[in-house]
Automatic annotation (TrEMBL):
Pfam families: Acetyltransf_3. The keyword Acyltransferase applies. This is N-acetyltransferase. Keywords: Acyltransferase, Transferase. The lineage of its organism: Bacteria, Pseudomonadati, Pseudomonadota, Gammaproteobacteria, Pseudomonadales. PROSITE patterns: GNAT (PS51186). One of its GO terms (cellular component) is cytoplasm. Residues 4-168 form the N-acetyltransferase domain. GO terms for molecular function: protein-N-terminal-alanine acetyltransferase activity. Belongs to the acetyltransferase family. RimJ subfamily. PANTHER family: [RIBOSOMAL PROTEIN US5]-ALANINE N-ACETYLTRANSFERASE, GNAT FAMILY, PUTATIVE (AFU_ORTHOLOGUE AFUA_3G00765)-RELATED-RELATED. InterPro entries: Acyl_CoA_acyltransferase, GNAT_dom, N-acetyltransferase.
C-alpha cells in the first residue's frame, strides 16, 4: 500500500463507483444485505451520491471513497449521526475483494477516526461485526475499538440469523 486516502463521493465518481460496486456485488452480498436493484445503474449511483452529499450537509452521515494511488478500493462511512446528548455515529466499511488483507480497512478506519474526532467533533463511534468476520473484528480491535456487547440472532441475511459484536471507540473528552 503506497498512498491511501479518503474522499467524499462527487458527481463525477458515478461511473467508477458503479463499476466498483458491480465488480464486488456478489462478494459484498455474501456478508451484508443487498442494495436495491435500482442502485446498480448510473442513475441509481448518482442518486446515492446526491443523497450522501445532502446527508453530510445536514450532519446526518458522512460517506467516503477509499482510494489507493487514486484507484477506488473501498468505501467507508459514518452514518446515524446523533448530536444531541450522544454526539456519536456508526461506522461502516467495505473493501473490494481483490484488495482485502492489505491493511486498507485499518488505514481507512484510522483516517475516519481522525476526521470524526477532529473536524466533525464526534465523541464516540460505534461499529458492529459478525463474530465469524474475523477480518473486520481484527480491524476494529487494532483500530482502538473496544467490544462492549454481543447480540444474539440480531442480523438476518439470506434467511439465516447471525450474531453481532458491538464495538465503540471514544475520542478525547470535550467540554
Amino acid at each position: 500500500m503506497t498512498h491511501l486516502y479518503i474522499t467524499a463521493p462527487q458527481p463525477d465518481d458515478v461511473h467508477e463507483l458503479l463499476a466498483f460496486e458491480q465488480e464486488n456485488r456478489v462478494f459484498f452480498e455474501a456478508s451484508i444485505n443487498a442494495r436495491p436493484a435500482a442502485y446498480y445503474c448510473a442513475e441509481g449511483v448518482a442518486e446515492a451520491i446526491a443523497q450522501a452529499r445532502q446527508d453530510a450537509e445536514a450532519d446526518r452521515g458522512y460517506q467516503f471513497l477509499i482510494r489507493e494511488n487514486s484507484q477506488l478500493v473501498g468505501r467507508i462511512n459514518l452514518h446515524r449521526v446523533q448530536r444531541a446528548y450522544f454526539n456519536c455515529a456508526e461506522l461502516g466499511y467495505r473493501v473490494g475483494a481483490r484488495f482485502n488483507g492489505r491493511g486498507i480497512a485499518k488505514a481507512a478506519v484510522e483516517q475516519v477516526r481522525q476526521r470524526a474526532f477532529g473536524e466533525l467533533q464526534l465523541s464516540r463511534i460505534e461499529a458492529n461485526a459478525r463474530p465469524e468476520n474475523l477480518g473486520s473484528v481484527r480491524v476494529l480491535e487494532a483500530s482502538g475499538f473496544s467490544r462492549y456487547g454481543h447480540s444474539r440472532r440480531s442480523f438476518l441475511l439470506h434467511g439465516q440469523w447471525f450474531d453481532r459484536l458491538h464495538y465503540e471507540c471514544h475520542g478525547p473528552l470535550q467540554h
